[in-house]
């Protein structure tokens, strides 16, 4: 026979909910590891008193009773596994695995038996139901009636609130059956009552989660947080782990208490209690117990009088009362020598601590990820800059955690740590896993939706569409006018392309003459796009329908003022981040409401555009006719000007030959090697000469007559 038996997908019943995990039976005892919390229940073989096999809702179940009265229930076994388990119990634990079925008669009267920490309601010899007394939070009595109230579990879909028992009166004198029933329940119930004095009190401790300053009162079975607004009572049985983490500045310490189930305040759940201490703060502590009680209770782990750093005293007392080890950072050291890495998670900056068996992030929101629940990790390039990278962790349940904005210098240290812990590294980037790929996130779950990124993409699309609506060349030409450094290249191209048109022989041109036509060409090029730009701006109708907004932008416009009122003095960037977080946390049903509004807006836009396009066609035909008419008038005016120039030329040709010779003569400085000039200058010269030649010709004729 095998020395061990292992079962996967076994469910442990804890406070009304079924927690899945793995069960292993060995010679030494029974071990169950919770898949969700990683908590391990270890039952020694010598402690086992009874084993019961019975049929339950999830197949078949195993109930184990220990000698000190504890009860453990495990469901999810197959009927065929009974023989194997029965033989194992006989061989290794020397126990008979008894088969007991529950009574299903449906009667509501019977006998109540108290056995250890279990209340069993029986009909005859068969149990109808059992109540673990550790689940009872309150017990009240009335006339012939006892009411039990239970602790609520957030993981359970349906919770049992209370059970009432009718206790008939008896003829026995001096014994009240109702009070006897209540005392049996209260002796084993998990009822938190702040009776008696606290063992010790720590005053005004700074608490990050839940935020505020609290007095911590240490009682034998629970921890009492007393603040100005709220009070919390935390049983030590709900404490999963303790962490003591040094801050990156080496002047402060975090003390983290992991809780399951979490403490509640309204709809908020706090899975972690985070205390912040200064290393320089010292305290002298005296326990409210005599030395014999301290020695008997804590077995040398605590003394009546202690002194030292405040964080050391708190962690030492908690370790002794909770009876759990304190987890501290291992051998990891970052680039700056600290045992943590600065990063961001969900738009809040914090510290990521690589531990010996997991990662923990503090502080908003706190996250603890064990190595055994990690499917793979990934190193990805940051979305905004190459100076940082993102560290992604995906669990076996499919949950993804992204720690962003990690300094590039930390990459080597973190990569070596992950390799040493033999974690699976899955690179999804193009360059050594440092480039983040967003395609894989397109169809991901709602938790991975990045509202801020989606909004940026939506605004980018709107800007791109608006740019396409304007004239094709306007974007390039506008950029050209704002690039003075590229002017020389543009001038050279313009001058070379028009060289044959602007000059007939360029052999003897001076530098100054070369620059003039080039500059003229550049000015012409600068003026044209501005005209086009103005025309395109004038052509854009302000009465055209506006483009519809996305679902996120509609929601943001409706809730912007509310966010501002909830967070007075919030900056624009912080408001965008906060809005992104709220949109991300919104349920799918609420998002669908805004999606419908966005779809309605899009339909209205398309309808308005159809109506607008029909009206704009008639407008455009009118403007085309007016443009043609204007061009015709311009041509007629140009013909008249040319006719006038021709008449002025004929008049200038009637001048005397002597006058023509004198006026045609030019001095050396006015003679250029290039005789040709632009058409405009010829026309202007000829007009000026014609106008100037008229008075002298009339004077000459007058003198001749004399």
UniProtKB/TrEMBL annotation:
<dbReference type="InterPro" id="IPR048985">
    <property type="entry name" value="SSRP1_C"/>
</dbReference>
<dbReference type="InterPro" id="IPR035417">
    <property type="entry name" value="SSRP1/POB3_N"/>
</dbReference>
<dbReference type="GO" id="GO:0006260">
    <property type="term" value="P:DNA replication"/>
</dbReference>
<feature type="compositionally biased region" description="Polar residues">
    <location>
        <begin position="647"/>
        <end position="661"/>
    </location>
</feature>
<dbReference type="InterPro" id="IPR038167">
    <property type="entry name" value="SSRP1_sf"/>
</dbReference>
<protein>
    <recommendedName>
        <fullName>FACT complex subunit SSRP1</fullName>
    </recommendedName>
</protein>
<dbReference type="InterPro" id="IPR048993">
    <property type="entry name" value="SSRP1-like_PH1"/>
</dbReference>
<feature type="domain" description="HMG box">
    <location>
        <begin position="545"/>
        <end position="613"/>
    </location>
</feature>
<feature type="compositionally biased region" description="Basic and acidic residues">
    <location>
        <begin position="532"/>
        <end position="544"/>
    </location>
</feature>
<feature type="compositionally biased region" description="Polar residues">
    <location>
        <begin position="695"/>
        <end position="706"/>
    </location>
</feature>
<dbReference type="InterPro" id="IPR013719">
    <property type="entry name" value="RTT106/SPT16-like_middle_dom"/>
</dbReference>
<dbReference type="Pfam" id="PF03531">
    <property type="entry name" value="SSrecog"/>
</dbReference>
<dbReference type="Pfam" id="PF08512">
    <property type="entry name" value="Rttp106-like_middle"/>
</dbReference>
<feature type="compositionally biased region" description="Basic and acidic residues">
    <location>
        <begin position="634"/>
        <end position="645"/>
    </location>
</feature>
<dbReference type="InterPro" id="IPR036910">
    <property type="entry name" value="HMG_box_dom_sf"/>
</dbReference>
<dbReference type="InterPro" id="IPR050454">
    <property type="entry name" value="RTT106/SSRP1_HistChap/FACT"/>
</dbReference>
<dbReference type="GO" id="GO:0005730">
    <property type="term" value="C:nucleolus"/>
</dbReference>
<dbReference type="GO" id="GO:0003677">
    <property type="term" value="F:DNA binding"/>
</dbReference>
<dbReference type="InterPro" id="IPR024954">
    <property type="entry name" value="SSRP1_DD"/>
</dbReference>
<dbReference type="GO" id="GO:1902275">
    <property type="term" value="P:regulation of chromatin organization"/>
</dbReference>
<dbReference type="GO" id="GO:0006281">
    <property type="term" value="P:DNA repair"/>
</dbReference>
<comment type="similarity">
    <text>Belongs to the SSRP1 family.</text>
</comment>
<comment type="function">
    <text>Component of the FACT complex, a general chromatin factor that acts to reorganize nucleosomes. The FACT complex is involved in multiple processes that require DNA as a template such as mRNA elongation, DNA replication and DNA repair. During transcription elongation the FACT complex acts as a histone chaperone that both destabilizes and restores nucleosomal structure.</text>
</comment>
<dbReference type="InterPro" id="IPR000969">
    <property type="entry name" value="SSRP1/POB3"/>
</dbReference>
<feature type="DNA-binding region" description="HMG box">
    <location>
        <begin position="545"/>
        <end position="613"/>
    </location>
</feature>
<feature type="compositionally biased region" description="Basic residues">
    <location>
        <begin position="517"/>
        <end position="531"/>
    </location>
</feature>
<feature type="compositionally biased region" description="Low complexity">
    <location>
        <begin position="497"/>
        <end position="507"/>
    </location>
</feature>
<dbReference type="Pfam" id="PF00505">
    <property type="entry name" value="HMG_box"/>
</dbReference>
<dbReference type="Pfam" id="PF17292">
    <property type="entry name" value="POB3_N"/>
</dbReference>
<keyword id="KW-0539">Nucleus</keyword>
<dbReference type="Pfam" id="PF21103">
    <property type="entry name" value="PH1_SSRP1-like"/>
</dbReference>
<keyword id="KW-0158">Chromosome</keyword>
<dbReference type="InterPro" id="IPR009071">
    <property type="entry name" value="HMG_box_dom"/>
</dbReference>
<keyword id="KW-0238">DNA-binding</keyword>
<keyword id="KW-0804">Transcription</keyword>
<keyword id="KW-0805">Transcription regulation</keyword>
<dbReference type="GO" id="GO:0042393">
    <property type="term" value="F:histone binding"/>
</dbReference>
<dbReference type="GO" id="GO:0035101">
    <property type="term" value="C:FACT complex"/>
</dbReference>
<keyword id="KW-0227">DNA damage</keyword>
<keyword id="KW-0234">DNA repair</keyword>
<feature type="compositionally biased region" description="Acidic residues">
    <location>
        <begin position="474"/>
        <end position="496"/>
    </location>
</feature>
<feature type="region of interest" description="Disordered">
    <location>
        <begin position="458"/>
        <end position="552"/>
    </location>
</feature>
